[in-house]
Structure formats: C-alpha cells, structure tokens
Amino acid sequence: MKKVASFSFILIILAFGIELVSTQNAQVIAHGSSSTEVKKKCFMDTHCSFYDDAKLVCQTTTRTKSKFAGFTGGFYVDLKDAGGEVLGTTEWKTFGVNGRWIPGAPSKRNDQTEWEFPQDFIGKVESLSIVQAHRASNRFLDKVLRVVVKEIGNAILGKLIK
User: Fold this and answer.
1) Are the CB atoms for 67 and 100 separated by under 8 Å?
2) Are 37 and 62 within 8 A, CB to CB?
3) Which CATH architecture fits 3-136?
4) Which of 84, 98, 125, 147 has its CA 20 to 30 A from that of 32?
C-alpha cells in the first residue's frame, strides 16, 4: 500500500525548533516503527519511511525517566524485499541523553536521520525492520579524552614546528 506525503514538505518539530524536510512529493514505499525500552527507564521510539526517491527518513525520540542516569541508545534499519531478504542496512546511529536532573544535555531529544540508497532499491523494498539497543558509552570520558589527545597533539606539533 502506498501513501502520498501530505505536502511537498513535512514539518518536523525538534527539541529546539522546526525543521523543514523536502520529500519532493515522494510516495512512501515502506514504513516501519519501533518503540523499545533499551535499558531500564530508557526509551527509544523510531519511525522510518522509505520513499520512491530512494531516501530513507527516520524520526527518533530518545528519552530517559531516570533522574540521574543518562544513556546512549542507537538504531539501524534493514530494508527488506517481499521475501524478507535484507537488501541493505544502514549504519548504527546513536544519540545520548542525560538523566532528568543532570544539567548539560536534555533528558529527551528528537532527531531526524536520512540515508540515500541506490535507485534500484525503489522497486524492491517492501518492508523496514528497525533494531534499537543500548549502546554503552561514557560520553564524559570520551569528551575528556578528546580534549587531552588534542592538547597533547598540539603540544607535539608545536615542538615540531619550532
């Protein structure tokens, strides 16, 4: 069953504003949704549509009900033919949120992700399968390490240039 996009633009309300996404009057070929508690009190909701212009557009809400514990969650999408065979797979896309009482990042966020596939997928894709999971990450440690490595690199480069 094919659905026609409501307008040539779909309004997507994000955490910090409104973004316009052009679908160029494209028709939806396949749609999939997944709502998952990826970790205790940690949730991801992803809705994806594959259009007849070979674009896959996904809207993801990542949120936690925990007061202190944030998390990083991720998803990928399998595009399948009528027989259920996987024609293509996206890479993992990850998003992180902080606990509700932790400053610095929101405890809920909305994100849009887009991929383009080869044009020959248009007549073959019949369904989408969305896989969501907790993707353990220490974002604080990652950020500290990036700063430390950058500073060490700058110090070494500065000595080499002199």
Assistant:
1) yes
2) no
3) Sandwich (2.60)
4) 98
